[in-house]
Amino acid sequence: MKHKSQTLLELKLKELDRLKSEALAHMRRLNVLKVHYMDWFDRRHKTFIEALQYIDFKFPQCLSLNATTIGNFRTGYKAAKALSQREVSLEKCASLLEDYLGFWDRLVELNKQGQCVHKKICDYRDGVAEMKDPQLNDMVHHLQQRLNIELRDDFNFTSVQGTSSDLFAYRVALQDPQYQKLVAFIPHLLRTSTQILCNKMSLEKE
Hints:
Blueprint: H1 2-58, H2 70-83, H3 89-128, H4 134-150, H5 167-175, H6 180-205
Helix pairs in contact: 1-3, 1-6, 2-3, 3-6, 4-6, 5-6
């Protein structure tokens, strides 16, 4: 009986090690995306804003000044992409919009992966012992629900608070303040994703 208990304990410890490895691997993927976005922002944010301004001015039917969701932005990109076949000046603009959507799509996929990691952690925790701090689990669930909502194409990203002091928002404000929320949205989501993962790793330790 004692030998069996030790074996079960060893299996649980190995499972915990695997979960830790998965969580750390996911954290690295989030950090890679953050680094890529910051690098792109440093190199291209001025031309990105100029592209948006150009499209708004010359082709307002593509991208409305009132675009407040990623869905609107995606529709504008598709229209600019289609028009670029006739308007050469739109080709580079469409490419810059595509860059931004590439980051968005990578983040959506990472969120799906993160939810899989979270489910494994919760299943492991439920199979071992009752939580010492149920409020921590509630907070993780709340953050995940908020993140899922904010990652919807129809979410109004201008409603997000607390991004005006970001370096991203500040630097864009000097060029054109109406695009602050758009540029700061992905860093905001990355911060939430990282916060969720850090709390998930705390759940592992309980």
